[in-house]
Specification:
The protein is mainly β and 541 residues long. It contains no helices and 51 strands. It has a five-stranded antiparallel beta sheet, with no helix packed on it. Strands 2-51-50-49 form a four-stranded antiparallel beta sheet, with no helix packed on it. A four-stranded antiparallel beta sheet has the order 3-4-5-6, with no helix packed on it. The protein starts with 20 loop residues before the first strand and ends with a strand.
């Protein structure tokens, strides 16, 4: 990504890419490289030849040059359109975007003006245009399908009481086809309205359907990564391609190539008509948010819509994601239990224990903006409740007690060497030590401190507002050992705070930039502005 003059590279927010500066006795490297997209959802081929990509959890729309993988911002993370999930163009150059967390659909006009064309459409999700007719689906248990109008006229109801219809399309037979995601089925209804009917079942989290230029219906299965052709008449499928699971949507280029998006990491895969594949846009982290050491130089990452494990080489696996049964919501903080289970906080104010493939066990709920957490050797879980101004402890027996209160947005937490707690107060700009009811300030004068970590070199805090990693060493002096870090608070952009989706992922979906001590010489830093994870180490690179 470059600026309009083709000079300095830009990051995925469209800001000048930041080059970290480290102290002379420290080095920095990328475990996970920056991404071009903050997740990837609905996509459409634009009249300019670029692939337009909605990023609901990055709250932006980007246009991608699929030959180079470079992207430019069409609607920014601080813009009028909030949480765009799907896109469609009409023949007049209007770009329609569903705002999945904002219950509306907007149009970006050819002159750049933005108009709301439909409101009060909860969980507005899929959108498609055919002969300048606009159709939209609502992704909720009482989902409806509407025909919308570019001038904002009163929408026309086509179907209702559908179980979470997702990305839809109009077929050559005049029927609207759409997946019912939790049922694993594809249905259809006449574009004029009427009774909906099932086309096929037995699918694994189908998230989108589209017809190609030859009239063949395709479906993507997010649960398996399968891309399949559907024989509508027979109600049967045949596999066309296999990619990583976590698919959100797909689009056909004018020459017939297919492009598949992943909401988990922002990867876009090109699939030719003969099935050959190429990564058009490399994936990264959607956040990243919470970080925790996972042994052997690896990391556990709470990445919002998924949990990820990164090994010491930067290879990433995502053992589970939001749409899978039992997943513990939109995850924000993470720690590892002694038995290998994930302990997470989520946007719904819960703390949960989770093993992929099993149902998450809620340990505590009703918290006001649960953020970072840490697990002690005896199994006690310590949690920052930013909205409530508290740190709580959840005992191995399930007992919940308050450890500290009247704090100013406690956000990051780590276990101190003396058995106490180290907590960042994002609102107060400081790091405190808590032990036996006493609180002492260790580091002050910070802008917006988030993650806290400890190793033999000292106590570390990530100042998200200043873009700095600060270390308090044995000499008692707090020093910035890394500056100009690509963290969101340092972007200079007032990014939209996403309101979330009731029941599915309650909001607000607050940012969290975390740290983890990988070993006694290396601190992992979550670069939530770029989707990267940086490794900052003592000694040469």
């Amino acid at each position: 990504m470059s600026d309009t003059a083709g000079n300095a590279p830009l990051d995925r927010l469209g800001k000048p890419a930041r080059v970290p500066r480290v102290a002379p006795d420290w080095s920095v490297s990328a475990l996970i490289s920056p991404g071009a997209l903050a997740g990837a959802n609905g996509m459409r081929w634009g009249p300019d030849g670029d692939l337009y990509v909605a990023q609901a959890f990055g709250s932006q729309i980007s246009a991608v040059d699929t030959a180079t993988g470079q992207a430019r911002i069409v609607s920014g993370a601080d813009g009028q359109i909030i949480a765009p999930d799907d896109l469609a163009f009409d023949t007049h150059g209007n770009l329609f975007a569903t705002e999945v967390m904002n219950a509306q659909v907007s149009a970006i006009r050819p002159d750049g003006r933005i108009d709301v064309i439909a409101s009060d459409v909860p969980v507005a999700n899929g959108v498609t245009v055919h002969d300048d007719r606009i159709f939209m689906s609502e992704f909720n248990p009482e989902g409806r399908i509407w025909e919308l109008f570019a001038d904002g006229s009163q929408p026309r109801l086509i179907a209702s009481d559908l179980m979470m219809p997702n990305a839809l399309c109009l077929g050559p037979d005049g029927y609207l086809y759409f997946p019912l995601v939790p049922l694993g089925e594809v249905w259809r209804v006449s574009s004029q309205g009427g009774e909906a009917e099932r086309v096929i079942g037995g699918l694994d989290i189908p998230t989108a359907v589209k017809f190609d230029a030859r009239g063949q219906l395709f479906v993507v299965e997010s649960g398996t990564g399968s891309v399949a052709r559907i024989d509508v008449a027979a109600g049967a499928k045949s596999e066309f391609a296999q990619v990583a699971y976590g698919i959100d949507n797909f689009a056909f280029a004018p020459d017939g190539r297919m492009f598949v998006s992943h909401f988990t990491d922002g990867e876009v895969v090109e699939i030719s008509q003969d099935g050959a594949q190429r990564i058009a846009v490399a994936g990264a982290m959607c956040g990243p948010f919470g970080l925790a050491a996972a042994g052997n130089g690896g990391l556990a990452v709470a990445d919002g819509m998924s949990l990820a494990l990164a090994d010491g080489t930067g290879a990433v696996v995502r053992p589970s994601m939001l749409l899978q049964h039992g997943f513990p919501g939109y995850v924000r903080g993470v720690a590892m239990a002694a038995d290998g289970a994930f302990i997470v906080t989520n946007s719904g104010g819960q703390v949960a224990r989770y093993r992929p493939g099993e149902e998450a066990a809620v340990l505590c709920e009703g918290l006001d903006r649960a953020m970072g957490l840490a697990v002690a050797g005896d199994g006690t879980i310590y949690v920052c409740e930013a909205g409530g101004g508290r740190v709580i402890a959840i005992g191995a027996d399930g007992d919940v007690r308050t450890v500290a209160q009247a704090l100013d947005r406690p956000t990051g937490i780590a276990l101190a060497a003396d058995g106490g707690l180290l907590v960042s107060e994002a609102g107060a700009g400081r790091v405190i030590h808590i032990q036996d009811g006493a609180q002492n300030t260790l580091i002050s004068g910070l802008d917006e401190p988030h993650g806290v970590a400890v190793n033999s070199a000292g106590i570390f805090v990530l100042d998200r507002g200043a873009g700095a990693l600060v270390c308090l060493g044995d000499d008692g002096e707090a020093k910035a050992i890394a500056e100009n870090l690509p963290v969101g608070g340092h972007s200079g952009m007032r990014q939209n705070v996403l309101p979330g989706i009731k029941d599915l992922m309650p909001g607000p979906l607050l940012p969290f930039a975390d740290l983890a001590a990988v070993d006694d010489s290396t601190i992992a830093v979550g670069a939530d502005q770029t989707g990267a994870i940086l490794m900052i180490s003592r000694g040469p690179k």
